[in-house]
Q: What sequence folds into this?
């Protein structure tokens, strides 16, 4: 799935905090166990870290958290067209954000509503958010307190590679679209009423995540119509499905713990996540995601 080379990007939708101060990420629990827990947390993909009982690592005194953009002109100068998005990962994220928000803006407008944009923040290590100070080890997430999506590209690449996912363009697009699925839930008032304390295949927490997967599938189905991307191929869709499976709770548990415990699931199994994505992709509209 490639960007149309002449498509004009809008980098103002993405805030670049990379290099604006790098916090030192601390592995939770230390050693191999720390990596295991960090990966599990990272796959929460879009929840408020505070809701998880997780306290992000504090940066060292000489390594402040990323705050204001360190080089506000980098994305504006480097990410201008779809050709740039095909050549650079950070520009690709800009393009995905542009496409996703164009789709949801038009969808809200067709329904007589008004879409409230959400900015994506690129950071390195640790950054301050409306949900508190967050480490990259939490993984990509959406903060409902400030309406921003937060993403550390280096950790995203490590995460997908460690889990054996095909880390291609649409795999990354799926992750970004999932986070914006949480933004749509926030705008619809779903997040504030969801009780995510219970776990398990049928829990509210899992249903919330599956709905975000479904909404990601809806965007993929309609991405070409936003003017930024070419239509997805079968290989592209297979890549997104591969990523959805890789971040299934059962796959994570089997890989990191050697056993599967459905009662501890917070995001759904590989099969559930793939089915949710396909439900949105095949349904083609948000109505397909009304119930998971």
A:
């Amino acid at each position: 799935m490639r960007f149309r080379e002449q498509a004009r990007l809008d980098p103002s939708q993405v805030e670049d905090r990379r290099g604006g101060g790098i916090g030192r990420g601390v592995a939770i629990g230390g050693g191999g166990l720390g990596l295991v827990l960090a990966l599990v947390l990272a796959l929460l993909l879009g929840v408020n870290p505070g809701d998880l009982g997780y306290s992000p690592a504090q940066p060292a005194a000489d390594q402040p958290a990323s705050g204001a953009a360190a080089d506000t002109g980098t994305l504006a100068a480097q990410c201008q067209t779809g050709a740039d998005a095909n050549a650079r990962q950070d520009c690709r994220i800009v393009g995905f954000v542009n496409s996703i928000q164009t789709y949801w803006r038009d969808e809200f407008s067709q329904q007589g509503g008004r879409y409230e944009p959400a900015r994506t923040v690129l950071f390195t290590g640790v950054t301050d958010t409306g949900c508190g100070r967050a480490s990259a080890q939490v993984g990509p997430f959406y903060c409902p307190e400030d309406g921003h999506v937060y993403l550390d590209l280096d950790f995203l690449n490590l995460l997908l590679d460690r889990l054996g996912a095909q880390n291609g363009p649409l795999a990354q697009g799926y992750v970004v679209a999932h986070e914006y699925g949480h933004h749509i839930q926030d705008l619809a008032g779903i997040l504030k009423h969801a009780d995510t304390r219970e776990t398990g295949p049928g829990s509210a927490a899992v249903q919330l995540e599956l709905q975000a997967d479904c909404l990601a599938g809806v965007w993929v189905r309609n991405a070409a119509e936003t003017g930024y991307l070419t239509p997805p191929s079968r290989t592209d869709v297979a890549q997104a499905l591969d990523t959805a499976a890789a971040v299934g709770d059962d796959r994570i548990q089997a890989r990191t713990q050697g056993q599967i415990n459905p009662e501890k699931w917070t995001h759904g199994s590989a099969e559930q996540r793939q089915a949710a994505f396909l439900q949105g992709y095949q349904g083609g509209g948000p109505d397909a995601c009304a119930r998971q």
